[in-house]
Predict the structure of CTP synthase.
Amino acid sequence: MKYVLVTGGVVSGLGKGVTASSIGVLLKACGLRVTSIKIDPYLNTDAGTMSPFEHGEVFVLDDGGEVDLDLGNYERFLDIKLTRDNNITTGKIYQSVIEKERRGDYLGKTVQVVPHITDAIQDWIERVARIPVDGKEGPADVCVIELGGTIGDIESMPFIEALGQFSHRVGPGNFCLIHVSLVPVLNVVGEQKTKPTQHSVRQLRGLGLTPNLLACRSTKELDDSVKAKLAQFCHVPLSNIVTLHDVPNIWHIPLLLKDQKAHEAILKTLNLLSVATEPNLKDWTSRTKVYDDFHENVRIAMVGKYTGLSDAYLSVLKALLHAAVAHNRKLIVDWVPAGDLEDVTSKQDPNAYKVAWGLLKGADGVLVPGGFGDRGVQGKILAAKYARENNVPFLGICLGMQIAVIEYARSILGLHDTTSTEFDPEAKNPCVIFMPEGSKTHMGGTMRLGSRRTYFQVAECKSANLYSNVSFVDERHRHRYEVNPDMISQLESAGLSFVGKDETGSRMEIVELPSHPFFIGVQFHPEFKSRPGKPSPLFSGLIVAACEVKRTVLSPSYGQTKLTNGSYNGHSPILKSHQNGKGSNTTNDSLNGIYTNGNGVYVDGSF
């Protein structure tokens, strides 16, 4: 097993996760099998209890692991399925060591950071690196490890020590260290400054780790003289210094690395030059560069609670992007703070209220993502009502599905006091309730998590057609509340159709409004399995409907067609589009996107 360690220096937020993912893409393109590990030095056992404002979205894996969003990048870039153990935290390591101590595994010894914590870290890395994640048998060839945080952080010191020991444990030719650092440009003089990187490398070397490659983040390509200076002062060969300058979108990074022959430096360090092939990134290159040829936009209103931080909905954004690109559209996401749609805002901040409603009404489609808590709920309900009444394509995810059901019960059934027990535990007439198996005393890891099976109940419904008429699908979940089973017959009599249920038939998974062009809510999170070139079917359906492309797959007809036996493999089927009377095959062309922050300021996904 070969190991590539990615560390970061000078400042946080340099893009270590994207860099690690891109290195994995490059090595995979060389014919190697790749797995990934993310180390987070925080004391939390996992990311499950952390606020999206604090740490971005919580990414959910098939096995129910609630992990750092960087593992989402790994899965999307490398098209792999990771496990909860691929995310190492200080909390997990200390917990495992303390459990061993309580069992007496250390035979009365004094348990210390060195060697017990550091040994536990190394053992964890070796064990997890051998778990296959690409659907094939046997371990991968290379494990890419990202160490979170910045060199010098006090909480990462045990990991630095452990990784220093680990480099000797696996031996020369099996360990490659890539240090991502910042080369800033001072506007006053316009000169690229190397001193921060010099100090960062000196600190890294003082802690027992010597970088094999330097990946330098900068606004523009490094001057040759700057590279030479870094090589001299950091003791890194000139050929092993690569520039990661600002690019239009993050999918250019593997191409940047390839153009600078970073793969050759890594393969040489790992003694893999004789077994690796020349990197084949033809498909990746075409997906990355063809986006600029798109001229038609599709505008989606994202109505959420955490719109001030795009990382809170990172996987949703990527899934929208994958779907838009597959249908040759440039994506524009209008961030709509749910609270700004509420009547109280019209009095407190009339301008914000006007802007929010302007964005909602100007969108081609509406998406209400998942979330927790009652802030902004009324605004989400109003968004769902607007989409339903005006035939605007709507997709509700997790809480978004529950919101759609609450709105329908209030507006159509006349149950004006109905709500979720999440928002009102004493509600007398709830249409969303706490799941019986959930815990009300512990938050971490107590939700309904991971891959669960949903069985289609209605042939030829929109959702089943989008999933190629399979009989069931496996999608990832993360929720504590569910639609009240006692209200299903009442809701369906009023026009809603619960077309997807779990294996018991009592838990609602997919809801549709047959009379609407596209109004779908799902209890699961389809965004977690979307991939570049393989978009989620439901997101594809939303984009198609938002583009007003007429497809037979979106027909509201509910016939007696028998569902195909088998399961959905996680990727969108190839569909035929018909626009202006002409049929054309959809293509998975590019990976870039355009987002707006709701105020007309465009953010293009730059690295």
